[in-house]
Design goal:
single chain; alpha/beta; 14 strands
Length: about 260
């Protein structure tokens, strides 16, 4: 049975300026939804509001993951319930190895609670889990010994995000412009990683500005977000139209249809 991320009439402000002006969207596990739009349309605002960033003020609307009311949960509770955000610009943390960071994240999200206390996953069990996922994603084992994102290329930072996503196995993954800053080779490698771990138990919201990543990660649905509203939805052919015609023509047509 599919789980559903349901967004209903979501309105969000930043510094008292309304950015999202009534977003309605349903994403089932097993589906890939691409959200495209010009700069400043509200794509990243949607991602951060779902994750619970305090800068983004939810004015009205509802978001549910199955029977779970997202806005009644703190950001860490959302993560434990299966909501994951892959950042557009991942932060470097010198002195913290990838392996230690990943183990801490997995324990926080997936560790069992025994007698009211979080029980850590045994090191040997976690190491096997991590190496299995690294093998699946074709990541060299030496990657785990490096400090988190320190000195990483753009592609390596995004692969680190995909590895984290693979280990946490979220119900819903929000990927905020994962293709940003990647060359063609890095884009292909990162996309192959996403394709390797996506499946019927995970819904993906792929936020992007360009069609190129959708040549590798095939979306079930494409939505065009402009000025805080979804103005058009369709299949991959909609993204291909954007590639050929640009945003202006598609936006004009959507406005005319709405009149």
């Amino acid at each position: 049975m599919s789980d559903i991320l349901s967004i209903k009439d979501l309105r969000v402000s930043v510094e008292e300026k309304e950015i999202l002006k009534g977003i309605n969207l349903e994403v089932k596990t097993g589906e890939v939804h691409a959200i495209m739009g010009p700069n400043g349309s509200g794509k990243s605002t949607l991602a951060y509001a779902l994750a619970g960033h305090p800068k983004y003020e939810v004015e009205s609307g509802e978001v549910w993951m199955g029977d779970d009311n997202v806005f009644e949960m703190s950001p860490d509770e959302r993560a434990r319930e299966g909501l994951f955000l892959a950042f557009q610009y991942p932060t470097a943390i010198p002195g913290v190895s990838m392996a230690n960071f990943l183990r801490t994240a997995v324990n926080a999200v997936k560790g069992e609670v025994v007698d009211g206390e979080k029980k850590a996953i045994p090191i040997t069990e976690f190491r096997k889990m991590m190496l299995d996922k690294m093998s699946l994603l074709q990541i060299d084992r030496a990657f785990a010994r490096r400090y988190l994102n320190e000195g990483f290329s753009g592609g390596e930072k995004k692969r680190a995000e995909i590895l984290q996503m693979a280990l946490l196995e979220p119900r819903f993954a929000i990927m905020d412009e994962t293709d940003s800053g990647l060359d063609i080779d890095a884009l292909r490698i990162v996309s192959e990683g996403v394709n390797a771990i996506k499946g019927p138990q995970m819904g993906i919201v792929l936020i992007t500005h360009y069609n190129r990543i959708l040549n590798y990660i095939k979306p079930d649905y494409v939505h065009i977000l402009v000025n805080g509203r979804i103005i058009a939805s369709g299949g991959q052919e909609l993204a291909e139209r954007l590639e050929v015609e640009g945003y202006d023509n598609v936006i004009k047509e959507a406005v005319q249809e709405a009149i």
